[in-house]
């Protein structure tokens, strides 16, 4: 299993508080809990050449994790196109938190992906809606983050294929915090938590969910569909065919 | 109810056979069965100025119907953007047949929208999968088109919100022929039949489905969602908020 | 349009507070806002003969509304069977609040329909998840009920076909408060609010939702599916057929 | 992983042709390709004591496979209740072919589960609708069974959570042949092929799908939800609470 964690990595450079929470970057924090004997994790960031994402790397990537916020617009459209093609060809994609506004997520969703938000250090309680789902494995009925940014409905996404988590916020909002989507041969998971100013990616439940999601999102081993002009599989009425 | 039927209208100009089947264009044929006292229908075509689609027209359009095939690439990206915004703001969209490859449908789906196809005058039998759906009103368990182009799976679309029709083809394929999708505040219906070389839009069942779809796709009367920074609706823990 | 409002009508007889809120019974309150020139509303209650639900009445009923709580077990299994058959044949069903534990809802869902609950006069804020849905017509981004019983997740229902509302509760829970389900040829809507000790059914938003749901749930006009042994629609390979 | 294959095992006793195709019974044939070092397979049949299904056995079963046809009515309601409870508590259930009419499947679906059928040795071509799904792993775009019983739409089931396969039949019908459903904490997969008079369970693709489904259906490791009266997780407004 080969995973790439992509991070914008700008807050970490611009903001001391964020840098102190994530001294190795958000990508580094995520890598550190994902890496195991079975999961090889590489990282890539916006300021790397080609954002660290080459055609070769993506081709051999099972699951790509995406965190961005300040600089969605700086992501090159060709790279977005490349990631998009790889998702349609089977690569899993996990979009975290403010990645809801990334070019790749908006392109895959076809909607604005807009939402309500508020930074007020408020409590988030994440409830499991789908107790059958492997992404909820090892997680209780709910888990809490003592301080997070609020994201509130309406979240402008297509109807998710599966709704796994819904968040309750202290300030009165709710949010579909864990959603799956199928696109082409690829699986996409959106997971809400992870504002840069909080130590969210050190939370054991958040880590568990991301680890589960990586397993869930990996491609299935089967041939890609063929498209275009197709010969009939059954004998057609010849008269009509030659009409 | 205000409907706009948009048609590429190129086959009708380039091909005598198509012109003889649809002397008023495919848009004219669709308009003629949709227009009633309650439904005002206008038409617009690719070669009209701005493809016949202005900001003002779309703002007052309840449902837009889209047929295109040869010249998807000639549709101006700004117009696609405009249609997209209107769908997210509530305008219904009905995409017909080869419109699966239109820019607007691909943008709303987020996938390639590719499929298998074959022109062999073969029989299509369209089965109702969802007997509860208003788009299937007045339609029997199935209906047949004696000659149509084949479209076959895999059809590269996101999981439809609702699967209303599945086609059986003489040559051995199946196809999800009637699919609904929600995008933003708008409803989208894809309906497969309608190759330009066959008199499909004169078929009573096809007409019934399109009439039903127009009713189904019309916007609901409610305020648009608000997005962005949001004040709390409940009193927050002040200590934490001012942290 | 013919609607039947079925109510257990026991709290109203046993509890003065409930009787003072709903002097005509919950069924009477619902009837009073549903009845119009276009909608004929009848009521039926548990203690009526055959619970007020005959084969003839149900056959000519477009939508049945169901409120029950104390005496689910007293509902005769034959009547449950009759309602079930009518739903499969196209009759709409709207299940309110504590009706989640009714025999008919459990039979249609196939699950326990269990949930968390608390009576603590707490605030409920009902958020619209699906801004395209006709059941949300005329409703803002959210509406509030100042005092309601809490229902909390996990709500043991199958994945809803559509998730229209999610509730936020003061005590920290969330709940899928507006859910649609298709069963056979019939449409089912579950709507959470309506504890007997609060004047919930006088709330304008609650009334609007129920009025919308009645319109949405009405049967579509088409023949019922036929089941059982079926002759081939295409010529089969005779050798194989007679094998 | 512990799997139980339950088979009615009556055709095998009553019909020489079936007995010659499945000398160890359909359960034996399924066991023989499922059993591996990682998967322990037991079998149980209708005529075993308590149909071979005890409380203890089911408690330690990860996935139950169900084949029945002639004698659905002979299955004891208490056993059906027991299987139902185990599914809601997380046990996976795979229902094969004529099991669509089993008590347990109808109870979990809440519908009639009726369909069209025909025994005419006709060809079935099973198309993959969902190329992302682990149940389709190792399977091409479609696979064929040269002779099978026809099942045709409308199939009276709730909207599946996922539609993985759709069948094309020589005689002109289509069918949703691979469907997933979530019920409580358990996952359910319905798979169409497997008429007793054909050697379907020796087909490599059919075997692959069932092997995949067993992996997919296994319970996730997490606590069961708690239901009933619940203390608030947040401080409530005391005045209102004591009202």
From TrEMBL, chains A, B, C, D:
Domain of life, per UniProt, equals Bacteria
Pfam families (alphabetical): ThuA
Family matches, as InterPro entries: Class_I_gatase-like, ThuA-like, Trehalose_catabolism_ThuA_prok
Residue ranges spanning the membrane: these are none
Query: ThuA-like domain: which residues?
Result: 2-217
The protein, known as: ThuA domain-containing protein
